[in-house]
Design the sequence.
């Protein structure tokens, strides 16, 4: 048996200790045992225990594919086939992973700051899951952003890849190219030596689109242009291909304006031609056990609910 924790074990231990202290301080005696059992079961669910299931054939190739995703507020503009630009990005990441199986993948996102969401991993499913959670910041927290703020994080991932023998480093940058910070985007030329191939992918239109975001109440609203007279007009974000083409030129890779996933087919076909022969090997697949704890957890919650209800009836 192995474990694959959802939340890192040290953090989960801290959370559990805090929860136990609160239970001991605030719970009545007859509820303490039930609530402690709930904490224990949740802890084991978080461990995500797994047992060997079967041997499967796994394909590996020599590519490290790094996704760099713009998650600034403008990526919620509604001019990618009448949907949000970022929704198009998520579909296109899935498309690329499907066309480049067996690679190692990494995910970097950037808005006010840049973050390595996932280091290099062969687990494409984990990359997709992480990409699915990408969302722009709330309008209240969004600040002027630079489209090259990710430079240092990207360089760190590229250097780690460079240490591995016989690896091709493929970069895909997903952005609308809109520079809202009052300065020129930083040059990426110093990273060109680490990059073997890839593309800068542009999202949106030069006509532009209104931007939608989810406010603090959970309602989807339009971003307003505060430079207009009240009542403010809807803000419009426009694709800036000049900036995107400059990024592509700095890295010596293609620029592609994306309107559908297949727009990148030519680049992907060239990548598949250049990769080394795929290595196939047997690896052990593991079966998750954590969902077996679910019935126990449900029963404990039902007991907790019953005790709460009975306690209320006694009061009455």
Sequence:
């Amino acid at each position: 048996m192995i474990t694959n924790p959802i939340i890192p074990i040290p953090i989960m231990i801290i959370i559990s200790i805090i929860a136990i202290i609160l239970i001991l301080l605030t719970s009545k005696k007859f509820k303490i045992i039930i609530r402690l059992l709930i904490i224990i079961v949740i802890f084991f669910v978080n461990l995500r225990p797994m047992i060997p299931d079967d041997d499967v054939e796994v394909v590996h190739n020599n590519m490290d594919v790094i996704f760099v995703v713009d998650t600034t507020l403008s990526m919620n503009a509604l001019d990618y086939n009448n949907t949000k630009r970022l929704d198009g990005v998520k579909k296109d990441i899935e498309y690329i992973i499907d066309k480049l199986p067996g690679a190692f993948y990494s995910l970097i996102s950037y808005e006010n700051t840049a973050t390595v969401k996932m280091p290099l991993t062969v687990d494409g499913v984990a990359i997709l899951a992480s990409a699915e959670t990408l969302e722009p910041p709330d309008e209240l927290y969004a600040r002027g952003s630079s489209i090259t703020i990710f430079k240092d994080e990207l360089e760190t991932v590229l250097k780690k890849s460079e240490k591995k023998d016989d690896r091709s480093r493929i970069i895909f940058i997903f952005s609308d190219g809109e520079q809202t910070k009052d300065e020129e985007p930083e040059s990426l030329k110093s990273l060109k030596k680490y990059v073997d191939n890839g593309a800068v992918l542009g999202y949106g239109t030069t006509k532009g689109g209104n931007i939608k975001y989810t406010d603090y109440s959970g309602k989807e609203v339009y971003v307003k242009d505060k430079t207009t007279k009240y009542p403010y007009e809807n803000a419009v974000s426009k694709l800036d291909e000049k900036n995107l083409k400059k990024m592509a030129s700095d890295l010596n890779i293609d620029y592609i304006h994306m309107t559908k996933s297949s727009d990148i087919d030519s680049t992907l076909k060239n990548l598949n031609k250049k990769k080394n022969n795929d290595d196939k090997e047997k690896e052990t697949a593991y079966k998750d056990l954590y969902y077996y704890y679910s019935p126990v957890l449900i029963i404990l919650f039902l007991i907790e609910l019953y005790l709460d209800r009975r306690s209320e009836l006694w009061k009455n």
Observations:
- The chain has a mean pLDDT of 87.
- The chain is about 35% helix and 25% strand.
- Residues 66 and 246 are 19 Å apart (CA to CA).
